Every structure is written in C-alpha cells, then in structure tokens.
Amino acid sequence: MGSIILTSPLQGWATAIDDVPDAVFSGRMLGDGVAIDPIGNMLHAPCDGEVLTLHASHHAVTLRGEGGVELLMHLGIDTVALGGRGFEPLVAVGEAVTRGQPLVRFDLDGVAQAVPSLMTPLIVTNGEKFRITRTETGKLVGVGEGLIYLEPAEPAVEVTRDDQGVRVSGKVRVPMVHGIHARPAARVGETARAFVAESWIVKDGCEASTRSPIALLKLGIRLADEVEVVASGVDADAAVAALIALIEGGMDEHDHAEAAPVAVAEPVALAIPEGALAGTLAAPGYAVGQARWLRVDDIEVPRDGQGLDHETERLNAALDSMRLRLSDASGDETGAAIRRAHAAFLEDPALQLDAYARIGQGRDAGHAWRHACRATAETMRTMGDARFAERADDLIDLERQMLRILTGTQEEALRFAPGTILLADELLPSQVMALDSHVIGLVLERGGPTSHVAILAATMGLPALVAVGPALAGIADGVTLILDADGGLVHADPAADRLAEAQAEVARRAAAREAAVAAAAEHCVSRDGVRIEAFANLGSVEDAAIAMAHGAEGSGLLRTEFLFLERDTAPTVAEQAALYGAVAAKLEGRPLIVRLLDIGGDKPAPYLPIAAEDNPALGLRGIRVGLAMPEVLDEQLRAILSVRPHGQCRIMVPMVASAAELLKVRERVAAIAGEMGLAHRPEIGIMVETPAAAVTAATLARHADFLSIGTNDLTQYALAMDRGNPAVAAGIDGLHPAVLQLIALTTQGARAHGRWVGVCGGLASDRLAIPLLLGLGVTELSAAPRFVPDLKALVRRLSIADCRAHAERALQRESAAEVRALARRFEGEFLA
C-alpha cells in the first residue's frame, strides 16, 4: 500500500490540532490530525469510503477509507449541546461515499453564534496503523485540496519460538533529531504498558525494558540509530507493531531534523558587586555568619562480594528495611513528599536489575547498589531536563541511606557552631532535615531552585542560594559571609563598613519580625483605613496550623495536587474530603479557597493518561485536565462540596483561558450540588495565570465570583520565558511592566462587575511588589504562611493613595530593573 491522501472536507483556514480550544482534541486523546475553521456550510468526504458513524446530533461523522484509515470529523466545539439544531445529514450509516461527496449541511452563522468555536477537528482515530507524514496547515484550503498525507505503519517483524513461547522482533531507524531522550522514553513506556507482553529495545547488543524510561535513556539512542524492538508474550506482535509505529512516527519531533540549529539564549548578565558571588534564589532571607563547608566522605564498601546468594539476600533485606523507613507517615507534608519520591526510585525496575546484575558479576551488594544509583543519577543529570536533573540528588540520597543499612553504620550527627552559613557542592534532602538550629543559611555550588533541598530550606526558614558555580570553592572555612538570598548574592569577607550595614539590616529585620509576630492577630488595614485581606497559601494541614499561628485570616490558595502526585492511583472522594475538611477545621471557619487540581505540565501523575508533551507548559494542564477527564473533576468537586460548614470552602479554577471553561465548571458544581441535595452554592473564582485571562478579565468577571492572580505563571507566559530554564531565568521578573499592565487589566475588568482581586503568586510575598499590587487595585494577598505577619505589618505602614501614585509611575517604566529601582526608592521614602 502506498501513500494515502485525505483531502479537505471543508473550505476554511487549516491549522494544527494544537490550536483547537478543547483539550480532548488538542491533547490528541482521540488521535492526531488537523483542524479547519470553516467559511463554508458543507462537510464533504475527504476520501472514498464508508460511513461508520453519524452522531445522533449530526455534528460528527466517522468514515473508513482507503487502507482502513478511520477519520473522525467533528463540526465545532460543544456542538453536541445543540441536539442536532442547525445540522442536516445528507448520508446514512453504512453508506458508501466518494471523495468530495456532501455529507452534512450546517447553518454556519446560527451554529457559530451558539457554540464556543466552529473549529472542526479531523482526527485519524486508528493512528496506531498509520503515520502522518505531512499536513497542509497555516493557510486557506478549499474542498478537495490535499490536507493529510499518511503512510501505513506496517513494520516487518520476525517471529521466533523459544522455550518461553512466541518472541517477536522488528527493526526501526530513529527519526527524532534528539534521539530517545526524556519525553520519547516516557511515551515508549506508556505505549508498552498497554500490552501484556514484556518488551525491550536493543541497541548495539545492549537492551532496556520499554517500561523503564531510565533504562532507555542509558542506551543513548541518537538520531538515525537503528534499534530492535523485541517482545515476548500473548500480544507480542501487536506490542512490537505499536512501538515501532510510535518511534517511526517521530513522536512529533522528527520534523525538526532539517531545521537550522536553535540559538541558545545567553544568560542575562547581572551587575555583581566586587567580592560577591551570584546565585539563584532557592529560599528568601538575609543572614550574616561564618562559612563552614560540609564535605561528607563516601561510605566505604568492598568491591567484591561473598557469593551470589549471600549478597542477593543482603540487598533484599536492605530494600525491605528501606521500604519500611520510607513508609513512615509521621512529620510534615514536605518530608512525606520526599519519602514518596525516594520510594518511587527504590522500586524502579531498571535500578534494581542493574544492582542484581552486578551482584551476579561477583560484586558486593553495597558496591552494586552504589554503581546502579550513580549511573542512573548521571543519566538524569545529562538529560537536558532541569527538574529531572534536580531529582538526581534524591537518588544519591537514597544510595547513601541504603549503604548505611548495608554497612550497619549510622549517619554522623551534623553539628555546627552558632551562626553557620553552610557551604556545599550539593546537599541531600536527608542532610538538610538533619541540620541543627545553628545553621542560619545555605549556599550551594550546584542544585536547582525547585529541588527538594530548596523546598526544605524554605519550609525551615533558611535563606538559601543554589547554582553559585565553581567560584564558591574559593571561599574558605571561617570566612565572614553576608548572605542576601533575596538579592541573589553572597558577599565573602566584606569590608568593615559593609559588614556593619549588614549586621544592622539583620537586627532591623529581627526587630521588625518580632513586632510583626506580636501583632499578627490584628486585622490587616492600611494606614489610610483600607481593609486588605492577609491570607496564606497552603499545601497541608501542617501549613494551616502554621498559618493560624501567624495570624492568617484565611487561605487564598489550597494546593490540592500533592494529594494526587507520587502515588499509583487517584485519591478517593473520601480521602480528598477528609483532607479538605481537616484544613478547614484548622482555619476555624475562616475562608478556604481550594484550587482545583493543577496537574500536568511539570507535575505529571502516572495514573492519568497524559501523553508526554514537547511544550508541557502550554499543553494539557490545570482545568484542561479536569475538563478532559470529567470523572476526576467531578470527584474533586464532590469532595469539596461535602466539607462542613457549607460556604467556608470556595472553589478556584486554575489556568483559565476562556469563559467557556469556567461555565463548564459552574455547570458541574450546580449538577453535583443538586445530586447532593445542597441548597448552597459555593463561590467560584478563577486563577488569572494566562495573558488571555488578564486581557478578558471583564468578560470572565461576569461569571466569576472573584479573581486571583497567579503571578508566577502569568509572568512566564507574558514574557515567553520558561521559569525552569536556567538560560533565561535571570530575565524572569514579575515586576516587568508587561506583567504589571496585565494585573492592571485584571483589576479594571473585575471592578466593572464588582468582583475582588487577589494575588496568590510569588509577588504576594515580595516586599517591593506589595505596594504596587495594592496600588493596582488588589485587595487580597495570599502569601507563604510564615510571611503573613510581615505582610500585615507592611500593609499597616502603607497609604493606598500613595500606592496608587506609585503604581501609575511603575506602569510607565520600560523594564523590570527600572520598576525595582523605583520600588526601592518608594521603600526608602515611605517605609524607612
């Protein structure tokens, strides 16, 4: 069979499937294809074939054409709700049709006014049998023009029989320009798990299980490498065919093989004072102390073992002991999350098999485990994914803990002199948790701002800088340091006058903090009498307790995704309800704004069918996941609605880009509340994280009870800078004039409908940003729990009238640096 050409069934603008405003289609849950925004009123057959299905509402047709290709044509988005109104079918199920034959006539204007979009997806629903080699998009097409070009995915396979049964194999040449790296490896694993058969990929005589992404990465598969896909089991032939088709299809990456090299952005240069080193903020704060290096020697283990059975038994016993340790549910949520991450590594089949294989080669169990962990960690660090690289530290931490068990040695207590600022190449999470109260700050040569070490430092109130670089090694033990984590700098051996200023700053901050904590229970009211709500961002019951102890007036953001991550199955309604209820009880009746599941992108859940994405920040995440998986959304809504007293919980919808998304959530809340017999309907608001939401705030405010700005995501989307990319991270600043303009648009749009606007992103904890936010019209700030007293104290010293004038001046500036300079002058003039 040769190439198959599907011609355009509509006249209109052809575009990529990613542009369809519905996550089910743009997320390719039904298959791959293209979309057309029609300007004609007739749907035609794109090929000769047979009508397989005609939806009862007549808005969707499926054809089977040449070679068995099956194509779904879905006229518009949410058109099923019209119940057939505006659609006239011209064919019936089972009817043979010819290319270009009219299938459905529709009322172009009438339907367009009744639904969110007329964008029409054309989906190849049996894509496992075909690969799309070319599409014609980004232009106006007419009926009958070539649109989708297909090739059959029919890999030649070799079938053999051995003692284990049928063994099937086939070869494929890798078309992806970057080979099988993190994302393709994850997609290979997802495909393999759909079959009973065990499968492997073989390169140069080395093989890796398709179910272990880490093992696949170790093969180092590059562009144009020929690999063998092997499977054994009842559906081995289907597994090999699907895996070869997936790889041969390029996973949406091979089209770039001929492109010119992409220029990598140079890091933004910073003006670094003499005698200072720059790093990346991991946890805020300011400290003056003495440098002390933490250098931990490797645990010694013998190279050779005492026999296969003996060493295997030792490793098995250590794994069991480690599982028991990691199952400990005590402590705060941060520590529990880290233990769950370590447990996932502990059970990785590739990691364990590597260790057992080395034991089989005569190695000691500890030596085998160390080699397996370090080889995998090195792979993770070189994968080009910053977040994955940060998790390599967790693997090294797990290595060390296992070796303690295998050698019977105890971790040495970490004891330091008072006023220690700890320096290290890297730190392990378990080491941070073991630090005593004499450590007042952390500075690391490597590491990342979203690592578990960074999270722990923030939780413990330790100012921390990471990624300072090799120059950190030039600082000796005992040197006096000024750690200005807020400014991203560490000053070594400062001059006497600078040191005196820093010590005065530390004393000033300590006195201000003491006074703020003492007044934390008082209401948050500006100097000129304007009431500002001081809320806290929460992620656990423990956070709620801390927030209450620090005077929080409620929670402006309860993150719920931690309930869903790092587990094998979704939490039940009962589990969710228990957690939300426990947090609500801690707040003693104060408002609790529960953010709906914000998963996807950089926060995947293994049990949710979200395919790996080239650009996850722009893919299936936030409310798009809930709308694409309605059972997940409904269960969470049911859990929130069950919290008593009714009305304490408010619902916040993340990553909203259109009113249609909010209205769908409102519809589900009303339906579930009705099923539960609840007369009360909770307030439903949105997170403003996309520029689209900010620009259309006046429209969204018609349907939202409140708007809360997530400044972290809003900043990265407004500036088109990935906040996880170190090459551009220095340029990401929420005080960029473009971000401030979007905040101003949000508050203006909300005021038109009498809605309040809050901020629950990082700017709500930024002292320089708070006056600007209040001046732009924000009336609720939700910050880190321990920062709430400082937030209240700052607001009490501000006049909203002064803040408005300040914000107007800031909107006229040309850069974030200019805005911050203006903000510092405002601080000196009005807050000194």
Key terms:
27 helices, 35% helix, single chain, 832 residues, alpha/beta
Could you give a quick summary of the protein structure above?
The chain is 35% helix and 21% strand. The protein is an alpha/beta fold and 832 residues long.
The whole-number mean of residue pLDDT values reads 84
Poorly predicted runs:
254-270
- Spatial shape: globular
What is the structural class? alpha/beta
Query: How many DSSP E strands?
Result: 35
Radius of gyration: 29 Å
Strand order of the largest sheet: 9-5-6-7-11-3-2-13
What gap, in angstroms, lies between the N and C termini? Answer: 79 Å
Question: How many helices?
Answer: 27
Helix proportion range: 25-40%
Assess the beta-strand content as a share of residues. Answer: 15-25%
Strand count, sense and barrel status of the largest sheet are: 8 strands, antiparallel
Characterization of this structure:
By secondary structure, the protein is of the alpha/beta class. The protein contains 27 helices and 35 strands. Strands 9-5-6-7-11-3-2-13 form an 8-stranded antiparallel β-sheet, with no helix packed on it. It has an 8-stranded mixed β-sheet with strand order 20-27-26-22-23-24-25-21. The longest helix is centred in the middle third of the chain and has 23 residues, at 496-518. It is globular, with a radius of gyration of 29 Å.
